[in-house]
Amino acid sequence: MPREAEISVNEREFIQQALRENTRLDGRAFDTFRPLELTFGDEYGVADVKLGKTRVIARISVEVTAPLPERKFDGVFQIVTEFSPMASPAFEVGRPTDAEVILARILEKAIRRSNALDTESLCIIAGLKVFHLRADVHIIDHDGGLIDASCIAVMAALQHFRRPDVIVEGEKATVLSVREREPIPLSILHTPLCVTFSYYEEGEIFLVDANLAEEQVRQGEIIITMNRHGEVCQIAKYGGATVDALSLLNCNNVALEKVKDMSKFIQERLEADAKRRDAGGLMAELSAENDR
Amino acid sequence: MAPPPSLQVNLSPAELSFIRSSLAQTPPIRLDHAKGPKDFRSMRAECDVLPGANGSARIALEDGTEALVGVKAEVEKSQWRPVPGESARLTAAGEVTMLDVDDAADKDENTKGKGQNSWVEISVEVPGFRDDDALPVFLAAMLTETLLASGELKDRLYINNRFHWKLYVDVLLLSPLLSYPLSLLSMTTHLALLTTRLPALKSEKDEDPLFDDDWDASVQLYGKERQQIEKPPVIVLAMAVGSNIIFDPSKEELAVADAVLAVACTTSANSGGRIVSIRTVDPPSHLTPPGVPNAMNSATGGKVPTSSADALTQRELLSNSGVWTPPRGGMKRSLLSGIVKMVVEKGGVAEEVIEALQRVEIG
Amino acid sequence: MPLDTSTYSLALLRLDGRRWNELRRLHAQISTQAAADGSSYLEMGNTKVLCTVSGPHEGKAGGAGGGPRSTQAKIEVEISFAGFSGVERKKRQAKDKRTSEMSHTLTQSLAALLLTHLYPHSTITIHLSILSQDGSLLAACINAATLALIDAGIPMTDYLCACTTAAPPTSAETEAGGDPLLDLNGQEEQELPFLTVATVGKGHAVSVLIMESRVRMEKVEGMLAVGVEGCKRVREILDKVVKEHGKRFA
């Protein structure tokens, strides 16, 4: 099984020493993210997130299926993560590593279990037909912070996505194509975003958005998922060195600030994209004037 | 079935030969020399250990082998299947109902032959083995076979024409595999089934089944009021060494067995001990390395046989010399009938074991 | 017989009759199995877990060997659910994501707790059998593993103790919400947002903190505080179990 290359003892010492002197290798402050870039594809529901060197693409697709027998009024929403060997030689297709399982679980808990997406709105005919929404997360380049980047990508893609409209007449449902009727945005109840804290020196130093080298040196991590309304959706600290309970609460406050910033950023990008898409708007299209 | 590697013992040919010759004496001297040929290893047993299961039991042997069994029953929709002469039987059943059936015997009469084998599902989990490995599958098959052999159990799972109980028996070996676990698992299953209770039925005939919430009103699957019913079968291991028969062999004793039998037996109040099924088990002794006699060892002045045929004839001559040769298996008919008799006779192994387990339930 | 719970809400009692900060009966035994290097059996109410530890022993070929990692012992955790453990009989797949998350948590927290550098090139295998589930499953697994590792005599820095807490249900009368609840059973776990917390030693050193449901940020503080207190109480109980066991050898 291929493994991540271990960081050398010298590098490890160097990073730790620098942290003790309040310096990160890339010169960021302890509580800042790397430069975040978010672009949308030509299609609806494709989001490309770059967080420093880490790059994640999320793509939403939809089809019509029968609902699960125990949830007749809910649409199906599924998040599929894939680590491709392209991102890092340590990834192998078909054999999920611990990191991959954890990423899938965190996304599941952060987005699906916290009801970020209103699955009831995906129902077409109760018990017979529902939309099956699938979010594919592809890790294109891996330089730490995968969970944060993936979460941003999925949430941005969900907000960008438009599903086709349907007409229901009794038992018969007709899915209208994009040309026939303007597609409908999904009903998003809130926007959970993840912030990963890596800690060093027995919980004395906390870093936000560690890169790969910093991740390899850390003593443990805390992943906090919040929305901008101050609701915690998920906290995960899977062992590692111990941390004082008070500093955990402190992390919550930092996370809220970061989540607010990121939500705002995503919103701005979405608006910019919407503006780009409909130059002139519907009125321009309906105008009788022609360029002659 | 070949024994799994963890059941192989690392004994030298000399040690094997020693164990075998002491077991072949009359009376046999067992590894634990305080025990006679019919004595079982001591064990600790408790039942009703799990609140979430319909019945459960745990047995730990003195060597640390430990098993836990949980029985869970769920109501399932029966698959409709045409039964020849069903309508006739239905009217018959109706008549009996009118005559007020509280008598368990009459009710049993109604359900007779309606049970299906698929209503009982046994799964065996052995640490270090996958679910589809040969050993757990084989053990589960043996246990299922003996439970279903009499056909009485599955008939008792019948509720009405449309519904039945599905009985899941999950057998867990909690400790690593230290000795051949078949009889331990079977005894634990026996005890768990004895304590299994099903909620009392409140609905009648072919209605959707409705059960009494009161657990005190539940009925035992092998209830006291059904004294004439056979107890769930227990599998005992018996092995033959020379002309001796030894019950409940330990791992080391198994390594010198000529042949091993798994005998499933049961008792009921009116007919005493009965045998449900018998199977031979491939003992690990077949795979033990043979000793090399001085006559065939050049280091001790012997002559190494020149051809394999020569080696074979020399080995034949050795059979009684005390040099270890793995047994070729097979068992004399007289021994087989001896085992059967020892199991079934009044006060025999079957009654002894089942009575001992019965006492656990009461105490 | 079903409990008559009609007066409970008036007396601020929970469905099973406990007060908000009351643990369920925590019963534990160590050295339950003669054949294992270390073993324990732990009940938190109706949640029952059996743990066996084997090792430190030589790891499987290829697993532990190679790289600087082999200066420390490798910890392997296997979790198996008995078919009869839940309300409905269900076979859990061994490679279930939730199960692997649980074993990942145990591996990570124990790796920091045990003095693994004393056993280079070796493996410590922890096997957990879940016999009955009724809430606080991860917490019970952590506590059982701690006891079994103590029984196996593997050096560790301190007890790792875990429990669960839930945010109080907001009712009409108590606008601000009542007190957080300690040590949840299966029913409460389904209804309320809860977190599992594990601490090392007597202080506030949190090793594991997992929360899976949405809750107001302000409530986390209270839940965490109650959880840390609960861990201390669990530690006392576990400590008593270990000392009782030790007396046999005195």
Automatic annotation (TrEMBL), chain A:
Domain Exoribonuclease phosphorolytic, chain residue ranges per copy: 33-164, 191-257
Record CDD domains: RNase_PH_RRP45 (cd11368)
Subcellular location: Cytoplasm; Nucleus, Nucleolus
GO biological process, one term: U5 snRNA 3'-end processing
GO cellular component labels: cytoplasmic exosome (RNase complex); nuclear exosome (RNase complex); nucleolus
Keywords tagged on the record: Cytoplasm, Exosome, Nucleus, RNA-binding, rRNA processing
One Pfam family this sequence matches: RNase_PH
Gene Ontology molecular function: any one: mRNA 3'-UTR AU-rich region binding
Superkingdom of origin organism: Eukaryota
Xref: PANTHER family: EXOSOME COMPLEX COMPONENT RRP45, EXOSOME COMPLEX EXONUCLEASE RIBOSOMAL RNA PROCESSING PROTEIN
Similarity comment: Belongs to the RNase PH family.
Name of this chain's protein: Exosome complex component RRP45
Upper taxonomic lineage: Eukaryota, Fungi, Dikarya, Ascomycota, Pezizomycotina
TrEMBL record, chain B:
Source domain of life: Eukaryota
Regions that span the bilayer: none
GO MF annotations, alphabetized: mRNA 3'-UTR AU-rich region binding
Subcellular location(s) per record: Cytoplasm; Nucleus, Nucleolus
Residues of the Exoribonuclease phosphorolytic domain: 39-199
Pfam family, one: RNase_PH
Keyword annotations from UniProtKB, A to Z: Cytoplasm, Exosome
GO biological process assignments: exonucleolytic trimming to generate mature 3'-end of 5.8S rRNA from tricistronic rRNA transcript (SSU-rRNA, 5.8S rRNA, LSU-rRNA); nuclear mRNA surveillance; nuclear polyadenylation-dependent rRNA catabolic process; rRNA catabolic process; TRAMP-dependent tRNA surveillance pathway; U1 snRNA 3'-end processing; U4 snRNA 3'-end processing; U5 snRNA 3'-end processing
InterPro entries in UniProt: ExoRNase_PH_dom1, ExoRNase_PH_dom2_sf, Exosome_comp_Rrp42_subfam, PNPase/RNase_PH_dom_sf, Ribosomal_Su5_D2-typ_SF
Entry's family note: Belongs to the RNase PH family.
Cross-referenced PANTHER family: EXOSOME COMPLEX COMPONENT RRP42, EXOSOME COMPLEX EXONUCLEASE RIBOSOMAL RNA PROCESSING PROTEIN
Protein name (Swiss-Prot/TrEMBL): Ribosomal RNA-processing protein 42
Automatic annotation (TrEMBL), chain C:
Protein name, entry field: Ribosomal RNA-processing protein 41
Subunit structure of this chain's protein: Component of the RNA exosome complex. Specifically part of the catalytically inactive RNA exosome core complex (Exo-9) which may associate with the catalytic subunits RRP6 and DIS3 in cytoplasmic- and nuclear-specific RNA exosome complex forms. Exo-9 is formed by a hexameric base ring of RNase PH domain-containing subunits and a cap ring consisting of CSL4, RRP4 and RRP40.
InterPro entries xrefs: ExoRNase_PH_dom1, ExoRNase_PH_dom2, ExoRNase_PH_dom2_sf, PNPase/RNase_PH_dom_sf, Ribosomal_Su5_D2-typ_SF, RNase_PH
Organism the protein comes from: Delitschia confertaspora ATCC 74209
One of the GO BP terms on file: rRNA catabolic process
Database matches in Pfam families: RNase_PH, RNase_PH_C
GO MF terms held by the record: RNA binding
Keyword Coiled coil: no
Protein keywords: Cytoplasm, Exosome, Ribonucleoprotein, Ribosomal protein
